[in-house]
Amino acid sequence: MPESRRLYYGYIVDPAENRRIDEVMFLVMRAPSSYTGEDVVEIQAHAGPLVLKSILSLLLKQGVSLAEPGEFTRRAFLNGRIDLSQAEAVIDLINARSASGIDLAVQQLEGGLKDKIQTISSELVDILAELEANIDFPADVQTATVPAHMAQRLEDSVAAPMRKLVRDHDDRNWLREGLRVAIAGSPNVGKSSLLNQLLNKDRAIVTEYPGTTRDLVEDGFVISGVPVIITDTAGIREHPDPIEQQGIDKAFANIEAADLILFVLDVSQSLETEHFRFMERFQNKTILLVLNKIDLTERFSLPDKWRNLPVVRISAKYNLGIDGLRSLLASYLVSSDHFIGKDIIPNLRQKQAIEKSLVSIEAAKDALLKNQPIELVAIDLNDAITSIQEITGETVRPDILDRIFGQFCIGK
Ligand SMILES: Nc1nc2c(ncn2[C@@H]2O[C@H](COP(=O)(O)OP(=O)(O)OP(=O)(O)O)[C@@H](O)[C@H]2O)c(=O)[nH]1
Ligand SMILES: [Mg+2]
Fold first, then answer.
1. Which end of the chain is more exposed for a tag (fewer CB within 10 A), N or C?
2. Which residues neighbour ligand 2 (ion) by CB within 5 Å?
3. Choices 3.40.1080.10, 3.40.50.300, 3.30.565.10, 3.90.25.10: CATH for 176-334
4. pTM here?
């Protein structure tokens, strides 16, 4: 009987022909000390495709079946070895394209989000239990003081930390998926030239004709361990031709969705009303002013109201100041309010579950403050608990599980 978690040496033998197929190492991991929490045998064979195929078909003949994509992780979840947020972290880890993506995934894999959610949800369960005690024994408690104190407790120990998680997703989900940077500006200011410099390759067409770029040109690079998804957009101008107009529409949609805008100005041209209009329109977004073509003139002064914005002076054509722009981007990424630290950032699914739960919590708080029957408050709190537990997977629907585990590849 092989011992658990010990490596053995031997041969795979086809019993029908008593023929040796491969020289292998194998490992037995008995439940519950394995990835899935079940009994597991791992065979380490030589990597030739024919050898592997022969071993596999022998095993299949013995009644073994092939794993579905994500089946190992799904079993680990179903056996309670990990929760759903940790299973999702496995996907993030496999898909990570940068050091920050790995950091995030590892923290979640270690149970960072799970712990936070469990703290919040057990607080909710406590509050609900206390309320239900009031339903059963109303005479025991001074009912008049209960609602306000409960509403406050819901706010402080449940709603506030949940809102912070939602904010963290909104502010910093790009650490997982990449910071979206849009290069915007009038035609011919050197946007495509800048894209090519940042990527160190000829990605977009550059010509002296205004209106060269019409579609979005997207690419990616990594800066300070963080993935950046950068898009060059069509030059924005009034009265474009119909094709250009489509490009400009796409440009605006892309700029709207970006985390950071590089607004490129040509220092040899004077500012027009459309530049001011652009800045007005996107005043709530993070804009970095890029003054290009500094090889042509030194005389360019910024309007007073733009003086507080971060500015870099470059020549995209002659590769001047590009490193300065890179370090400004890097410092933006690691600046105090963006720095990742040991924080946990929920993904979109998790954020949506928190938001759904928050709606029920607000309703419960409201009902408490309006002195509505405690039974009604209890219904809201139950809904809140159900929603928040979708994150750890205690209450999640099977079709959502299918969708999550469908993202895995075979063997994970
Ligand atoms: N002198 C000088 N010329 C530049 C500089 N950067 C770009 N150019 C030139 O400006 C022209 C337009 O450059 P592009 O990069 O195509 O400009 P764009 O903003 O992408 O233009 P559209 O795609 O039409 O919106 C080209 O002839 C470039 O060589 C620079 O720093 N200095
Ligand atoms: Mg262009």
1. N
2. 191-192, 212-213
3. 3.40.50.300
4. 0.74
